[in-house]
TrEMBL record:
Signal peptide: none annotated. It comes from Streptomyces qinglanensis. InterPro entries: Aromatic_Lyase, Fumarase/histidase_N, HutH, L-Aspartase-like, Phe/His_NH3-lyase_AS. It is found in: Cytoplasm. Keywords: Cytoplasm, Histidine metabolism, Lyase. It holds the Pfam family Lyase_aromatic. Belongs to the PAL/histidase family. This is Histidine ammonia-lyase. One of its GO terms (cellular component) is cytoplasm. CDD domains: PAL-HAL. Pathway: Amino-acid degradation; L-histidine degradation into L-glutamate; N-formimidoyl-L-glutamate from L-histidine: step 1/3.
């Protein structure tokens, strides 16, 4: 576990801190401001619990069962029961980083003092994270409304010492055993606390924040791949001039064009339109690369703005207001997050699509301006990268299916009380798959473009730029081989994928280009 500590206060947290806890195992600590906010809000709940008037989540049932008033003698059982009954997920285990993200985000909301839980409940959540205990959460169970109910319920179940969880060693064991092993005491829930642990958009938000972090790296990597393909195809960099992008002032477009210019600086391969056959303009997949990637960048900027607003929120129902009122609301509806999750999946699919078109152009001798068929060593005897493009095409086709929005669907639940839901969890799950696919697609383009640049560099007078040479050297160091006769290709493609996914591609060219946008 990483010993870096993230301090959770009543004023919230940052996207970077969420990622640090989720992925890097950063420790969490509640500050005194958060503890005081928790104590203050709890006093309001205790006062309401002592009154005869029914208050949702404190002294009533839940959802369509909210019409029943629950007496004091059954309220602890009520809170236990909502956790047990709602921990109804099915399917594969959700990734550890997703579970840690949703736990940390729920802790962030608890610490805001808007949920009414006792400080010891929040501390128990922090202790669970710090012990490296990760509740077993299943793929299916959230409709993205009333919060990510089933996923969060499985986490609350672990706090109660029930169900199964994964220890720091990754082995699933009974939660009670893991808590005891780490000196943690199961939580005895009181009024409202079970509901407060379940009622948030934390799962979909956590996945959105991690996708934003990954896509920031992948959009920059896509610009590098596009520049390498342009270089390998003897294209022109004149279309990347800042003044051309200033006349259509989308910020993402300008950033992508600037990145490509940095990568192409000093290249002896660009601008050879007239050498083999007259070309007035490059194909759209080359010439319009900044426009497509830039639109994706602007989509990412919008998604980040939504994520940061959601991160500054305290999502619960009912919510404890600063003046002590406890009010029902609809802030748990996941529509704002669901929409941008789906929007990003569209941008990912289109970015992958244009990357695949450039790869196919590199492999087609009729369109590659002098490169050997399929970049093969001895075409006919060797197939070169023919099937690498098939793999890339299969990935792009899958990404197009994943771009179909989840948020336009809704299935009523809870006896029509919850009659419109966001499906935000589903949108987040498919976006994670899409981000993985995009890393693979860009990896294939980088691999093909690097091979094509190497083949060009053997031609008299055609010297690739320093950035291209740095990418090629980095690829080789990562384990992806260069041109030559056919060989077992899957390990090379896996190495290229890892080179892109890990950020090693950007690290390799940073000494040449400086930081890319």
């Amino acid at each position: 576990m990483n010993m870096h500590t993230v301090v959770v206060g009543s004023s919230g947290t940052s996207p970077e801190e969420v990622v640090a806890v989720a992925r890097d195992g950063a420790r969490v600590e509640l500050d005194e401001e958060a503890r005081e906010a928790l104590r203050t809000a709890r006093r309001f709940i205790d006062d309401l619990a002592a009154k005869p008037d029914p208050v949702y989540g404190v002294s009533t049932g839940f959802g369509a069962l909210a019409v029943r008033h629950i007496g004091p003698d059954l309220r602890a059982q009520l809170q236990r029961n909502i956790v047990r009954s709602h921990a109804a997920g099915m399917g594969p285990r959700v990734e550890r980083e997703v579970v840690r993200a949703l736990m940390f985000l729920r802790l962030k909301t608890l610490a805001s003092g808007r949920t009414g839980v006792r400080p010891e409940v929040a501390q128990a959540m922090a202790d669970l994270l710090n012990a490296g205990i990760t509740p077993l959460v299943h793929e299916y169970g959230s409709l993205g409304c009333s919060g990510d109910l089933a996923p969060l319920s499985h986490c609350a179940l672990t706090l109660m010492g029930e169900g199964e969880a994964e220890g720091p060693d990754g082995v699933l064991r009974p939660a009670a055993e893991l808590l005891a092993e780490h000196g943690l005491t199961p939580v005895e829930l009181r009024e409202k606390e079970g509901l407060a642990l379940l009622n948030g958009t934390d799962g979909m938000l956590g996945m959105l924040l991690m996708a934003c972090a990954d896509l920031a790296r992948l959009f920059s990597s896509a610009d590098v791949a596009a520049a390498l393909s342009l270089e390998a195809l003897l294209g022109t960099d004149r279309v990347l001039a800042p003044e051309l992008h200033a006349v259509r002032p989308h910020p993402g477009q300008a950033a992508s064009a600037a990145n490509m210019l940095k990568v192409l600086e000093g290249s002896g391969l660009t601008g050879h339109h007239q050498d083999d056959a007259p070309r007035v303009q490059d194909a759209y997949s080359v010439r319009c690369a900044p426009q497509v990637a830039g639109a994706g960048r602007d989509t990412l900027a919008h998604a980040r703005a939504v994520a940061e607003r959601e991160l500054a929120s305290s999502v619960d129902n009912p919510v404890v207001l600063p003046d002590g009122r406890v009010e029902s609301n609809g802030n748990f509806h996941g529509a704002p997050v669901a929409y941008v999750l789906d929007f990003l999946a569209v941008a990912v699919a289109d970015l992958a699509s244009i990357a695949e078109r450039r790869t196919d152009r590199l492999l087609d001798k009729n369109r590659s301006h002098g490169l050997p068929p399929f970049l093969a060593h001895d075409a006919g005897v060797d197939s070169g990268l023919m099937i690498a493009q098939y793999t890339q095409a299969a990935l792009v086709s899958e990404l197009k299916r994943l771009a179909v929005p989840a948020s336009v669907d809704s299935i009523p639940s809870s006896a029509m009380q919850e009659d419109h839901v966001s499906m935000g969890w589903s949108a987040a799950r498919k976006l994670r798959t899409a981000v993985d696919g995009l890393a693979r697609v860009i990896g294939v383009e980088v691999y093909a473009a690097a091979r094509a640049v190497e083949l060009r560099s053997g031609t008299a007078g055609l010297v690739p730029g320093e950035a291209a040479r740095a990418v090629i050297a980095g690829l080789r160091e990562a384990g992806a081989g260069g041109p030559g006769g056919d060989r077992y290709l899957a390990p090379d493609l896996a190495a290229a994928e890892g080179f892109v996914r890990s950020g090693a591609l950007l690290d390799a060219i940073r000494p040449v280009t400086g930081p890319l946008a």
